[in-house]
Amino acid sequence: MIIQAIEVKRISVPLKKPFKTALRTVHSLESILVKITCDNGMVGWGEASATVVITGDSIESIESAIMNTMRPQLIGLNLLAYERVFQTLHQSMVGNTSAKAAVDIALYDLISQRAGMPLYQFLGGYRDQLETDYTVSVNSPKEMGEDAAAYLKQGFNVLKIKVGKDNIEDDILRIQEIRKSVGNQVKIRLDANQGWNVKEAVQSIRKMEDMGLGIELIEQPVKAHDLEGLKRVTDSVDTPIMADESVFSPAQALQVLQNRAADMINIKLMKAGGIYKAQLINQLAEEYGIPCMVGSMIESRLAVSAAAHFAASKKNITRFDFDAPLMLLHDGIEGGVTYEGRVMRMPEESGLGIRSVSLWEGEN
Fold first, then answer.
1. Of the candidates 146, 61, 138, 131, which has an alpha carbon nearest to the alpha carbon of residue 97?
2. Residues involved in catalysis
């Protein structure tokens, strides 16, 4: 099972509505598709989304890293010795985690196809369906309340609320409006995307607790590099705190875990460099008794299917943030995970379960 060819293609798909966080506003999916072909004719698919403000990876850098650095080192390798292949991939260059993730996804697609198993079963097979949350972009309190009510009507009972863009008093108003719109039947998670400082985070989270807003957890309240500040917030409030941008690598995860700087970790394939390293992060967290969530950037159903396969395979992954494909104006992927409202079902086909990728043919 020799790697014969590695190809890439840029794609762009409009979103139904702009996606707004404390870090950016996104109007369309911009990503790189990867197609890896082996000598036995098998094809594996991967994808990397460009999220410069989080990973530092642009469309141009992803494409260049794959074609000019990774491809020459991987062509000719035998995927039956896949440990060697993944070591080669991750040692090929420093950083560039999104590019590594796209190749990693395609490699796992191929390996699990060769094994004749859906990828989630190949990786552990803990569950065969998930329930995703839905993200409410940061806007005016009124608009966010209306959006939250609309997502509730669509069947979503866990909402991830983007905050941290303006002052924290405005964030509290947003949460109050959302809670008023959806009542107490919906779980609310907050994602500040590094938008708060330590003192205002502690003061405001305590205030939200006193107000009884019922926040399930809060993601990355402070800057990614500020582990001491993250720990101060975690130690000072009752609401569980989740590390996101603070954890790209297993080494960074270990720092968070050893310092008890967070109660949970959000693993994303684009940060970790793919499934190979993501498994190590989850294993470390499990040993420390820390549960994980798996999420995604703005990605198509191709990359989200890979993340969902990984998430479904592991007991310690208890929360799922896979709404990105539902935000796209059109899909362009046949196969992979399927959505029935908030419920995601794993495919029965081997590998990722991708049957065709019309986006590859330019139908986007």
1. 61
2. 162, 268
